[in-house]
Amino acid sequence: MFRPEKMREVYVLGLRKDREDILKKIQQLGTIHLKKTDISDLNETPSELIHDAVQSLEQIREIRKLFRDKTSIFGKKTEKVKIDETGDAAFAAVSKRYIGRIHNSAKDILKSEKEFEDKRKAIEKKLDLLDHFRDADIRPESISDNRKFISGLGIVSRDNLKKIENLCDYRIADETEEKAYIIFISKKEDWKKICHIIDRFDTDEKSIIECIRDLRKDLEAIEKQITYTDESAKEIRKEKAKILAYEERWKNIKARLSKEKLLGRTEKTFVINGWIPSGNLGKLESIENIAVFEGRSKTEPPVKLDNPSFVKPFEKITKWFGLPQYREIDPTMFIAVGFPIFFAIMLTDVAYGLILLTASVFAYFKTDDEDLKALAHILIISAAATVIAGLIFGSVFGNFWGFTSVLDALRDPIRILKISLAIGLVHINFGLGLNLYSKIKEKSKDVLEPLSWFLFEAGILAAMIGTETIRQIGYAAIALVFIYRLKDGITGFLSVPSFFGSWISYIRLMALAVATSWLQFVINMGVTAAAKVSIILAALVFVFGHLFNMSLNVVSAFVHSMRLHYVEFFEQFYESGGEEFTPLKNEKKYSG
Asked: What pLDDT is attached to residue 95?
């Protein structure tokens, strides 16, 4: 729980004729992180199936363009489709026919959609252009070409109007800040000099009104064609669940086949080298027709975090910073405790906590996305902690329905400041304690690194509150720490003010708590003032004011809670840099 799951290096030996079957079983087991063997292998032509997988996945990628899901992230749960567990070759034959047929239809639909969309945009652009000439008195014959002259409608940049003055006659029908819409006539020899400046529009010797009428008819026809094409696309969208299941099966096949390059081979045998969690070794050994040997590699094993289910979502926060190294302490459990507390202190309102709790519970049960589910879980715990903090601070929409309690962010900022600094001191020292524990366990020579900070703090405390003798001892302890720090030169010396900087950073707990409360106070004053004008206005100020304040401070509390862990807490003991445990396994999100 406080360290990554223990790993064993294994070598799996089998006969080459059983390789495909054994690799499938290992993929079904889903517990081995494969790595390249140091055993020389024979050259082998890649399986034809890998080419089929790449081609089919590319076709499905094209088909997926038609899905264009407009549903919310809180839409219906993922529908699973049962795919017969036939052999890869049989599945490939069925899939290529099915996916190939749909891909051909999808390709035609996508091509038609693009053509129709391009036509629609072109027509809409012409209509927009003609709208600028609608009120101009223009006869069709006045904008038609002859042997000597070029005439018509055009768009020209206002900056270029002076450039065409001596080369054509024009009248401005309409203009904007950047463009002028002109009716022009020019000699053919002059037109060659200005044709790159004027964006000409041809009306086919029709009146402006006739052009607009005909273009609108064309637009209606295009819209009907787009609707018809979309109906065809809907038929393909009905197959979405099945297509996604086929895609998942192909991805599983590709994942397995792509790992074959990591295997060691001889003429009659093959060997797999990888890492497996210790608890799963027995399951691996139960696979038939293999021999399993434990390795003794000096390379660092991959990292698989091992936490209880209620803590597991907080692994996201750990991973955003970086996984621990294999022999390093996993900070996830400490984040699961510290993060909600910091979040609650900064948001600190019963009503805000209840609103966030309701929204998070709704999101948790409605979404099927794993990342969103984890985020909702984190917010549920943080929101519940916020309700408790709100009771301690006596805040329900600030002082709107407030009550007397232990603390008041408006009246007791100094007390909250002291509490914030006390929490910071505990948090930092806990990190130093973890550092000391790790150094002792590893029998490291750097054990004095965390110990020096404990001595430094004890020296300051003794110098502040001790007797004369104790104070002298405290001064000596502080001096010793400074001398010890000088071993790292100027960097070591600067680590002392940096330590205080980390501690002072926890003032943000107080700052955000007070900021939330003061904004609530201002909003509530606005509600009181608005109530004298209108109850509806007061309600609008109340709802939108508190929603804005809550949204702003939920984001701030989340970000600053992470920062206090990433910068101030992790700095004391955490290095990160571990490689994630990524076993060869079958994904089963869409296929049953």
From this structure: 92
Give pLDDT, residue 323. Answer: 96
**DSSP output for 66-99:** GT---S-TT-SPPPPB------HHHHHHHHHHHH
pLDDT score recorded for residue 203: 62
Instruction: Tell whether 413 and 543 lie within a shared domain.
Output: yes
Structural domain that includes position 454: 312-572
CA distance 194 to 192: 6
Q: Could you tell me if residue 578 is inside a domain?
A: no
Cα separation of 342 and 557, whole Å?
8
Is 580 contained in some domain? no
Q: Which residues of 313-343 are buried (b: 16+ CB within 10 A; e: fewer)?
A: bbbbbbeebebbbbebbbbbbbbbebbbbbb
282 in the same domain as 176: no
DSSP symbols for 237-295: HTTHHHHHHHHHHHHHHHHHHHGGGGSEE-SSEEEEEEEEEGGGHHHHHTSTTEEEEE-
77 and 220 housed in the same domain = yes
Please check whether residues 227 and 89 belong to one and the same domain. Answer: yes
- Burial environment of residue 257 by CB neighbours within 10 A (0 to 12, 13 to 18, 19 or more): buried
Total number of domains constituting the chain:
4
pTM of the model as a whole: 0.80
Same domain, 474 and 525: yes
What does the pLDDT read at residue 124? 86
pLDDT on residue 157: 87
β pairing state of 7-15 and 290-294: antiparallel
What angle do helix axes 88-131 and 240-258 make, rounded to 10 degrees?
Answer: 120
The span from the CA of 1 to the CA of 97, in Å, is 49
User: CA–CA separation, 507 vs 495, rounded Å?
Assistant: 20
For the chain, residues with pLDDT lower than 50 are: 70-71
- Residue 402 is predicted with a pLDDT of 67
Domain boundary residue among 160, 182, 206?
206
Which amino acid appears at position 198 of this protein?
I
- CA torsion, ordered 28, 30, 33, 36, to nearest 10 deg: 0
